[in-house]
Amino acid sequence: MDNPSTFSPYVPNTEADRQAILQAIGVASVQELFGDIPRAFRNPALNIPAPLSELELMQEFEALAAENRHAFQGPCFLGAGAYRHFIPAVVQAIASRGEFLTAYTPYQPEVSQGTLQVIYELQSLTCQLFDMDVSNAGMYDGATSLAEAALMACRITHRYRVACLDTLSPLYRQVLETYARPQGVEVYTVSPGTSVPMRDDTACLVAQHPNFFGYLEDLSRLEQEAHKQGALLVVSTDPIAMGMFRAPGSYGADMVTAEGQPLGIPVSFGGPYIGLFSCKSQYVRQMPGRIVGRTVDGQGRTGYVLTLQTREQHIRRERATSNICTSEALMGLMATVYLATVGKQGLRQVAELCYQKAHYAASLIQRIPGYSLHLRGAFFQEFVVRCPRPPAEINAALLNKGIVGGLDVSEQIPNGLLLCVTEMNSRQEIEALVRALAEVA
Amino acid sequence: MTQDQDPRHPQLPDRKLLMERSVPGRRGVRLPPSDVPEQPMPDAALLREELPLPELSQPEVVRYFTLLSQLNYSVDTQFYPLGSCTMKYNPKINDQMASLQGLAWVHPLAPTEAIQGALKLMYRLQGYLTELSGMAATSLAPMAGAHGELSGVLMIRAYHQSRNDEQRKVMLVPDSAHGTNPASAAMGGFQVQSIPSNERGNMDLAALKKAVGPNLAGIMLTLPSTLGLFENDILEICDVVHRAGGLVYGDGANMNALIGQAKLGDLGFDVAHINLHKTFSTPHGGGGPGAGPVCAGGRLAPFLPTPVVEREDGPSGETYRLGTPPQTIGKVAAFHGNFGVLVRAYAYIRSLGAEGLRQVSEDAVLNANYLLARLKNAYDLSYDRTCMHEVVLSASRQKKQGVRGLDIAKRLLDYGFHAPTMYFPLIVDEALMIEPTETESKETLDAFIEALLAIAKEATTTPDLVHNAPYTTPISRLDEARAARQPDLRWRA
Fold this sequence. Notes:
The complex is a heterodimer. Chain A is an alpha/beta fold. Chain A is globular and about 85 Å long. Chain A folds into two domains: 90-337, Type I PLP-dependent aspartate aminotransferase-like (Major domain) (Aspartate Aminotransferase, domain 2, 3-Layer(aba) Sandwich); 343-440, Alpha-Beta Complex (Aspartate Aminotransferase, domain 1), CATH 3.90.1150.10. Chain A is built from twelve helices and 13 strands. Chain B has a domain at 94-352: 3-Layer(aba) Sandwich (Aspartate Aminotransferase, domain 2). Chain B has helices at 18-21, 58-69, 92-98, 101-104, 116-133, 145-162, 180-187, 205-211, 234-243, 264-267, 339-375, 396-399, 405-414, 442-461, 463-467, 480-485, and strands at 137-139, 170-174, 191-195, 216-222, 247-252, 271-274, 294-296, 308-314, 317-323, 380-381, 391-394, 421-422, 431-434. In chain B, the strands form three sheets. Chain B has a seven-stranded mixed sheet with strand order 1-7-6-5-4-2-3, with helices on both faces. The two termini of chain B are 21 Å apart. The model of chain B has no long low-confidence stretch (mean pLDDT 95). At the A-B interface, α1, α2, α3, α4 and α5 of A face α2, α3, α4, α5 and α6 of B.
């Protein structure tokens, strides 16, 4: 008889099975199989809570979830790298299929054509969105994708300085520095057109478009500036904005990366997401990550395989283009299904809804006494409001009224509050925000 | 019928891509009209004209992706004995819990008082992983195994720098290591030096002793090794490295053999990552998402990547907040790690408890040794000793008959099993690395054994049959050379 307290529904072996297996192996007990572990360290005490049944587990999770405030519990105007967008039901239905969910990395192409063809679709759609030549199967998130693009630029140019616009997300900037430091790559800030120009011997100019504050950069000018100095242009973008704005590739960007989360992936407290990654075709052999290619089998039938693997760690080891192995394939599937479902007209419509609603909100807020829009120029779905009081106080007051406000960016912009408005925010929510801001001014 | 369809299998779906299925005017979902007064559009020069995306109706989308899914093998459908990948069953309840609105829709930058449940979960998971690894502290930020490795080697680097010991640039890596180890060490700015294995599959101690010196930063070890063997000299290895001033990094890829049996911290490891998508049962998703939390002993804990969750016990009860270790290596991701994966791992640990986790490693090791016992007469073994959670066979005997490890792996697909890991570790000739995990039944293991025994016979009697496998898969062996020489990496009109 199994001891009911240690019975695991995930393990088929019964005591009878175990005995039969032990006999076949020719040992008396399972513990004999662990004889190589130094005896003094074997079977340590484990301070882990007692097991829960599935029912009890659900109750514990309901309680934990209830201690959070989620983005559907009332108006929410937070963005800054994680965005609340509508997700068609099709996305979760497909992503929940065990054939996708519980498969490994497609090393055996004969039995992984589903995953492989989806990745090829993702690569194609990424290139089409960004107007780029080639793309990989995805990186961990938007920040690591950008960091790896900057390191790739260093490998291509044999230069070891990276220039970042001061409008890049500070979160992305910190990740970039973590990746750059051990490579001896110096990251510095530029502000083109001002007294902080690019320095010689710079591998790449890094821009975010729309930038951290929601505004579009002048990519034509940045492209000229970078290429004039022999540097590459690396742009981190927002895939939803691609539904309406010119793609960075059309300005001559050499590498375009993005946070793929807005494409059908829940905000999920910061992950899992997927970093989209694309580049010009001449740089494909310096790309990090997995790449899927189309080929044929012995009978001439189309099929897909992992390719250009000599770039990768399992072949090239310490000379690989990156250490990345497991990445975010399932999130790539979700982004692909999202794009297939909303399609050409839907993506345009989502982008325009975000634009319209954000601009409506901005137009009302700047009319409230004490508030102003900090920046000029074209923005997409985010903008910075200068508040009459510290944004932390404004946010706290908004939360009391059941509204999750924006991100406090007062470190960069005095009394700056970064607000995000997407298609999820109704006119009622926007007007409630406006009323609340007026009251807490 | 397109030329891609196989006349012998007319039911197989054609392989047309989304853009080739697109029909102008079709839409997969209806979106709401704008409910705000129309706003002025920006300068037309900023706008794009062409948006080359597919146009499909919803049933077409669902059928396309569903048919694609059916071209995959998966743990939900078949035994997936990939060595070093721990393809165990992924409990469904864990997925359901991760999709609760109060977890899946929490914004990572929401105010601290709005995220107490998420932080509490992370705090507890940090504690469980710290306990299971025998370390002092854990950061959940790394988003995959290799990301945890990078974090760990950066911590070793920061540690030596903090002691003005910057000449320590050499990272030792055994010749049996995963490729990610040397690649991570290189990304961390280290020079990689390989250490050979000896005739028992252990590390060559004499070579190790020769390699350590004033430039030693540390060593990266997988325990049990990728040969599926417990390193007999582990205590001495840690001692040699420590006495030379180096630190010991543990690659937790093979934790499924050790969970509850021994703690890496007790054995002398200074830092380790844990693959939640292996030992802790979170689904692999066809290549991610994973999560690679990094656990550190006392010396390295101050260098953990940010954030870590901290608890404060105040008069009104406990509160949680995101904190930064004092000498952190910095941020490794935009936010706090792959939270959705962390939720699943937390659910797994809570479902099993201490005894359930111990049972995991016991049955995983038991099952692997069963395969070893029943297959060792038909296949060669490089090291004839008790294995841990996986067994590495060699097809060197079959190679003499003209059948290679690759052929055997492909033939297994015809028998309805996923192939083992092939040609790894690199130091075993014609390696077939098999990891059964604890979630397979004896009946499945018996069927798998019978298949491998039958293939061993086929290799002798009908080698061509094996050589040309697979026959029953949706597609046969693909021209990989052509894929690499003439890269076709995206759809074009």
